[in-house]
Amino acid sequence: MKKAIMLISIGISMIGIATAQNETSKAKAGTQWLRHVVLFKFKDDAKPADIKLVEDGFRALATKINLIKKFEWGINNSPENLNQGLTHCFLVSFSSTKDRDDYLVHPDHKAFVELLKPFLDKATVVDYWVQE
Amino acid sequence: MKKAIMLISIGISMIGIATAQNETSKAKAGTQWLRHVVLFKFKDDAKPADIKLVEDGFRALATKINLIKKFEWGINNSPENLNQGLTHCFLVSFSSTKDRDDYLVHPDHKAFVELLKPFLDKATVVDYWVQE
Fold first, then answer.
1. Hey, how many other C-beta atoms are within 10 angstroms of the C-beta on B125?
2. Topology of the domain comprising B30-129
3. What is the model's pTM?
4. A14 vs B11: CB contact, 8 Å cut-off?
5. What interhelical angle do B48-64 and B107-116 show, nearest 10?
6. Which strands, in side-by-side order, build the sheet including B88-94?
7. Pick from A7, A69, A34, A91: which is nearest to B128 by CA?
8. A15-37 tens-digit pLDDT
9. Which of A10, A59, A121, A132 makes an SS bond possible with A41, Cβ 3.0 to 4.6 Å?
10. Which residues of chain B are within 8 Å of residue A82 when distances are taken between CB atoms?
11. Domain locations in chain B?
């Protein structure tokens, strides 16, 4: 019986591990997400190395700023031609309005905006609480 | 020993259940996501009932069209004033380029676009494969 309890306990621990592996590192189960959708159009004279600097800079924010609970990004491949020149999308997820607001004034975020500015033609930003 | 194997087996089965519960209904574990980000600016004379029609119409697509593997949406609440008049974001996820392409020409999607047109000022659409 003790063996049985021990093995059920192993089973339950393993469920815990399985659940954790399906959550993004800093996210809790059942979190309501506040999405921060950031789209960039770069200047015509921005070089690939400049754009790489911005991509890496934004990715670095996600590791530096603990307020960011999920992060992903990608490069536009829509065939609809409705991207208004915007080529990059960064999708940042917060779990509260306060975290989003604190992120916006965070020194690391402000430094990133300064790094970005020389290469940026236009940014479009929409935030929303996730509905289904 | 048989009991031990049986209980480990229960543990593994339960991991399977836990994993399934953390995936969106139509999504497979380990799926690479192609995001389809759709932003709308409505005409100034669009009434709340018109906008509700569009919101409900888009949500209905997610249940009607099986190519859509994940769906969420929300209304802009960004304090940055960089939303370029865009108030609504719909985030649609596909698991292949073919599914995205088939969605774009799907009769239900085309019907939705016709429903939307009278109320739409501007759409911005960016698709991307998720990178981290």
1. 20
2. Alpha-Beta Plaits (3.30.70)
3. 0.80
4. yes
5. 170
6. B70-75, B88-94, B34-42, B120-129
7. A91
8. 433 333 333 446 666 779 999 99
9. A121
10. 123-125
11. 30-129
